[in-house]
Amino acid sequence: MALNIIRAGILSTVQDLGRWGFQRFGVPVGGAMDEFSYRLANVLVGNNEADAAVEITLSGPAFTLSADTLLAVCGGDFEPRVNDERLPRARPVLVKSGAKVDFGRCRRGCRAYLAVSGGFQVEPVMGSRSTFLRGGFGGYQGRALKRGDVLETGETDVTLYPSLRKRLEAGDAAFANPSWAATERVELLAPGPYVIRFTRGKHWDCFDEDALAQFQIGEYRVGTNSDRQGYRLVGPPMPLKVPLDLISEGVTFGTIQVPPDGEPIVLMASRQTTGGYPRLGEVISADLPLLAQLPPGAEMKFQQVTLDQAHALLLEREKDLARMRQAVQLQARQ
């Protein structure tokens, strides 16, 4: 089975859970920005959670299908349609061969994840199918998708969702879906500013005390010059008590660095491997999916938590996903 791309959108790339084990060679981890939505989409179509999916940013693609295809869309709401009929999100959808699937502009959030049964079969590079745009490798030819591309998929498990297959074969509809839907993150349903939780960074005590207090009550917005490597924040500046001369050290997804201009940068999925700016804090893992869904201009506030609280919140998120995985596995045989 294959997807035939007839419009690529602003930025659509193949991603998985990232390219681990190569940072010592200067190769970033990368991978899906919103790991929760990415993993959930794979769960809904019976895939391994690390199978390759398409990450869609701000404005989506359009494509046709060469065969009946089981797919799922999670994350931001792009109002996808199949032959001009609204495609349900956060649930498995069996789409008929030859149908046109069309994603519009994102109405809520920033990124969506398209998973298909069998995953997208691009050539792995260093053990990952993620696209590294700056390096020009991984994913589909090391670049964003464009018109005319053909994305091949792996072997589909035809035993999944037998009731959907019967409905699709018996009727004239372009797709079939169940009445139930998975529970996605609900934070984006409310208006901003969004609360992003963090733990103190290595250089927290090196910043001006008044600035530290302001950081936890002030509002920041995502700058227009933000991307998959980092979010530049616009808001109260963060001056140091005295200038620091630091040696570069390893950084991770969620590291909050402060360059000389005092405006914080949150490193994202395609962050560099090392950084030499002072580290103000670390966004907790449980909140990285929410942060990844904030588009340029979105407003946020930072809330400090302890490391124990951060661990508990991540564990609760993983329990939620495990419960949904078990429920989907039961539904997939009906």
What do you see in this structure?
With 334 residues, the protein is α+β, with helices and mostly antiparallel strands. The protein folds into two domains: 2-184, no CATH class; 188-316, Cyclophilin (Beta Barrel). Helices cover 17% and strands 27% of the residues. It has helices spanning 35-44, 162-170, 209-215, 288-292, 307-331; strands at 2-7, 11-15, 53-57, 62-65, 69-77, 81-82, 85-86, 93-95, 100-102, 108-116, 150-152, 175-176, 194-200, 220-222, 230-234, 249-250, 255-257, 265-267, 274-275, 279-283, 299-304. 44% of the residues are buried.
Features:
6-stranded antiparallel beta sheet, 2 domains, 334 residues, alpha+beta, 5 helices, Cyclophilin, 17% helix, 7-stranded mixed barrel
Order of helix and strand elements from N to C terminus: EEHEEEEEEEEEHEEHEEEEEEEHEH
Residue stretches low in confidence (pLDDT < 50, at least 5 long) are none
Tally of helical segments: 5
**Rg from alpha-carbon coordinates:** 21 Å
Please give the share of residues in helix: 10-25%
Task: Provide mean pLDDT, rounded.
Answer: 94
Structural class: alpha+beta
Question: What's the quaternary structure here?
Answer: single chain
Beta-strand residue fraction: 25-35%
Largest sheet: 7 strands, mixed, barrel
The strand order across the widest sheet is 13-20-17-18-15-14-21
What is the rounded distance between the termini? 24 Å
Detail the topology: elements first, then pairings.
Layout: E1 2-7, E2 11-15, H1 35-44, E3 53-57, E4 62-65, E5 69-77, E6 81-82, E7 85-86, E8 93-95, E9 100-102, E10 108-116, E11 150-152, H2 162-170, E12 175-176, E13 194-200, H3 209-215, E14 220-222, E15 230-234, E16 249-250, E17 255-257, E18 265-267, E19 274-275, E20 279-283, H4 288-292, E21 299-304, H5 307-331
Parallel strand pairs: 13-21
Antiparallel strand pairs: 1-4, 1-11, 2-3, 3-10, 4-9, 5-8, 5-10, 6-7, 6-9, 8-12, 13-20, 14-15, 14-21, 15-18, 16-19, 17-18, 17-20
